[in-house]
Amino acid sequence: MKSPVRRLAYAILNTVVRHSSAESRPWGTAMLQEFALVKDDWDALFWALGSSMALCRHSLPIQLQATFKSVVRSTPGILAGVAAAVVVLAVCVTGSVTMLNSSWFPSLPQQLARLLVFGPPEIFYLAGVVTLWRSRKPLAVGILLTGIAVMSHAIVHFATHGTGGHN
Amino acid sequence: MSRQTIQLLEAFLEAPTEWRYGYDISRDTGLKSGTLYPILMRLAGHKLLQTCWENTEAGRPPRHMYRLTLSGLRLAREQVRAHVPGSSRRTALGGARMSGAKS
Fold it and tell me: What own/partner pairs with CB < 8 Å and gap ≥ 24 does B44-48 have?
């Protein structure tokens, strides 16, 4: 029956090994195999803690570098997504405002008019994100970020301007 | 080179051709895992240390084994010699005798 100290020690080291980089994992596996040979439970805990620290120091720079490279690679795609979303927003807002101000369009309550301005771009954003998520994730992320920004602006606008009269 | 690294290299020099296990090295040198493994990783990264997994019978997980490479052995001998207490004084005084004389 393994003591709670030994079980804790094993859990700590095993968790660190599982989350380490691919380059560090063979070392982590080696540390885990040696762990089984440490007889004293408290020595086993210190072995696990020391090994975990060593593995983190080895693995973190590799993982951070990989994350940084991934962000650098994704940035042009994200910016392209933001740009595309801004163009869609400009087209939709221009179209909605023109339509609302035209003589043939019926007069609407202000809240509904605002919804007509902000609603269509958000629908396009949602469709774009869902369509592009698997194939062009950075682009989808750019669109999503813009959609969130526009939605937040709309919510703040509605909250601060309250219910208004007709447009 | 740190004192702990020299300690580790001395341990390897005791049996230069033998493969050693991590926990055995730790027990022999007194180096804890948090000190031992970074040194082993650094030596392996500089191609001064060979690593391999032992062949075991089915059911038993293999252990990682370590041994200095030829470059590692060369470096180890240099470093251990340089760090032996009084070696610099002996070299200065006995340099002439050591440098070419054959007994």
Answer: B47/B71, B47/B72, B48/B72, B48/B75
